[in-house]
Amino acid sequence: DELKRRLGTIIDDEDNNNAKDDFLGCIQKDCDPFKEVRRVAAKITKRCRECYGIAPEIEILDTTSEKNASLEFTYVPHHLRYMLAELLKNSCRATVRSYLKEISSREDQKNTGSLQSPPPTLAPIRVIVTKGDEDVSIKIADQGGGVPRSAIKDMWTFAHFTQDDHQDTHESNTEFENDEITGGQKIRGFGLPLARIYARYFGGELTLKSMEGYGVDAYLYLPVLGVACENLPEKVVMSPGNLDSSANASRNDDGDDDDDVYD
After folding, report:
1. Cβ of 31: how many Cβ atoms within 10 Å?
2. What is the pTM of this model?
3. What is the pLDDT of residues 41-89, one digit of tens each?
4. What is the per-residue DSSP string for 23-66?
5. pLDDT tens readout for residues 106-139
6. What phi-psi label fits residue 203: left (phi over 0), alpha (psi between -120 and 50 degrees) or beta?
7. Pair 63, 128: CB distance under 8 Å
8. Coil, strand or helix at 222
9. Would you say 135 and 67 are in contact if contact means Cβ atoms under 8 Å apart?
10. What is the C-alpha to C-alpha distance for residues 249 and 247, in angstroms, rounded to an integer?
11. Burial class (CB in 10 A: 0-12, 13-18, 19+), 15
12. Three-class DSSP category at 182
């Protein structure tokens, strides 16, 4: 609840600082999710290569139907970029680590004379973007080995670390973990749970589906603002900000303001 309250404060600050023509405060009237994915993917690919020396290819597919292509997607691009960056960083990290483990295993086999496996390849990450009548949905699928089902719940815990996180020193002297939220500080274990809070704040959702031994599929659902409400804490549930944000939502049929919500 405290994080949601602070997020609302951040949005208010962004409202006061953003004065572009196609923006209403921090909200962009027609945000292009495909363009934002490409923008974030390029940045994360660059950081991954600086960190590990290699980076998986990120394939981006726009599967929006022709009838929905012209639909406006009203959203907060700053939030979208943060969520995409966290998901892509996780996928890049898992994919590269899995690849490096295969390289190491192959070297061990070579040294013991038991080499049988073919040379490993750095698997690509696939991002699928589609725009619907109510939601924009983004799927990010990697082949980074996945995680056990028993560990999925822990991934939503703040400051959660895996054994690989403690052993991996590649990121200690790079900007791979930096983001605009932490002010450049290298803070691990906050990105994924914070991304889900961002998604849920405007009525969206972030879910993970893992196939242990293969990879993880992340699904990001983002409602078109103007229909969805802010998902505010219970303490401020009666705030006007928690009403439907569409133009006529807070009015009765006779056009009068609906004051019943304050009774």
Report:
1. 21
2. 0.74
3. 999 999 999 999 999 999 999 999 999 998 889 899 999 999 999 999 9
4. EETTEETT--HHHHHHHHHHHHHHHHHHHHS----EEEEE---G
5. 776 666 766 666 778 999 999 999 999 889 999 9
6. left
7. yes
8. strand
9. no
10. 6
11. middle
12. coil
